[in-house]
Amino acid sequence: MKLVIRISLGFWGLTAMLSSSSPAVSVALRVASVLLVAAKSPEAPKLKAPANATDCHHHVYDAKYPVDPKATLRPADALVEDYRALQKRIGTTRSVIVQPSTYGIDNRCTLDALVAMGPTARAVVVVNDTVTDAELQRMHALGARGIRFNLAQAGATTPEMMQPLSARVNALGWHIQINAPPAKIMEVMPILEQVSSPIVFDHLAHIPQPEGVGHPLYAKILTLIDKGRTWVKLSGAYADTKVGPPSYSDSSAVARAYSKAAPERCVWGSDWPHPTEKDKPDDALLFDLLTDWVPDEKARHRVLVENPAVVYGF
Q1: What is the rounded radius of gyration, in angstroms, for the C-alpha atoms of the chain?
Q2: Stretch (H or E) spanning 260
Q3: What share of the chain is helix, strand, coil (3-state, %, to 5)?
Q4: Tens-place pLDDT, residues 50-100
Q5: Measuring CA to CA, which residue among 263, 223, 203 is closest to residue 56?
Q6: Does 45 map to a domain?
Q7: Within a 10 A sphere around the Cβ of 4, how many other Cβ atoms?
């Protein structure tokens, strides 16, 4: 007799398969019980999140929404209920849903998730220069607070759209969010130096390794920060690392440098469900990196609570 037991943990799954005679049933049930406990009780981070701690960068994926034909990243479903399980695990209660490249300028998945998550959530959407003022106002009422320029993936937005769209969303109190390879960020720096709205850089602004803070891009980002309208997400430790887990020591050095130079301009993000990563990182480990990146408790509170409240209007 072959017995297959599958236990679901959000969009992950665990399967136990046993082949034997009837005693296998009781054995299988014991195995299933162990798996169920493991599935329901993933290890929590050592760092205790403060009240109103905010994850400023995660995505939601749902196969019921159409994929943009140009999309190269097409992850499995990662639903609101799956994300709530992550929140319960790491202790964050506020979040910012970021429109992924998978859906282009069709923001329905992100906005529907925003509505489902309620007043403790905000969103960053993707639009192009055809978006109407009425649509921007509608999204603002739902909780959108920024527009993303994802220049790392072939997509819906171009650098030429940055300045005009920045001016339009600045009137709403929004920012523009930048995700791009380091060479592209350097290329568009003259535009970024002139935009009207605040700027938020994804994933440590993709400072390349092994140069790290010695790369010219880091100095450019600090110059923008010094002007008082630029923020950096302490996120994506794996995005540019050459070292890898568990320490991500090269990316960690960049994160520490940002938090030391300008803790008032840093926010934290999980980048859940880590769509670029084939081998998914440990979310508890990623959260615990904050004790190394921002060792001062008051500064860490600022990164997790106070700064997100300013950027996203919580």
Answers
A1: 21
A2: helix 249-261
A3: 45, 20, 40
A4: 999 999 999 999 999 999 998 888 999 999 999 999 999 999 999 999 999
A5: 203
A6: no
A7: 10
Residues 80 and 7 in one domain: no
CA-closest candidate to residue 48, choices 94, 95, 93, 91:
91
The answer to whether 31 and 285 have CB atoms below 8 angstroms apart is no
19 and 124 in one domain? no
Residue 220 lies in a domain: yes
Tokens representing residue 92 in the block: 């964050």
The total number of structural domains that make up the chain: 2
Output the pLDDT for position 154: 67
**Which sign does the torsion angle of CA 216, 222, 225, 230 carry?**
positive
Structural domain includes residue 48: no
Give the count of beta carbons closer than 10 Å to the beta carbon of residue 30: 11
Task: Evaluate whether residue 175 is within a structural domain.
Answer: yes
**pTM for this predicted structure:** 0.85
Q: Which domain holds residue 6?
A: 2-40
- Angstrom distance (rounded) from CA 257 to CA 294: 9
Same domain? For 290 and 161 the reply is yes
Q: What CATH number is given to the structural domain containing 261?
A: 3.20.20.140
279 and 196 together in one domain? yes
pLDDT confidence bin for 156, thresholds 50/70/90: confident
295-308 pLDDT per residue, tens: 999 999 999 999 99
Cβ(157)–Cβ(151) below 8 Å = yes
- Main-chain dihedrals φ then ψ at residue 35, nearest 5 degrees: -65, -40
Q: What is the pLDDT of residue 41?
A: 55
Predicted confidence (pLDDT) at residue 13 exceeds the cutoff of 50: no
Cα dihedral 67/13/270/272 (nearest 10):
0
**Average pLDDT of the chain to the nearest whole number:** 89
pLDDT at position 32: 40
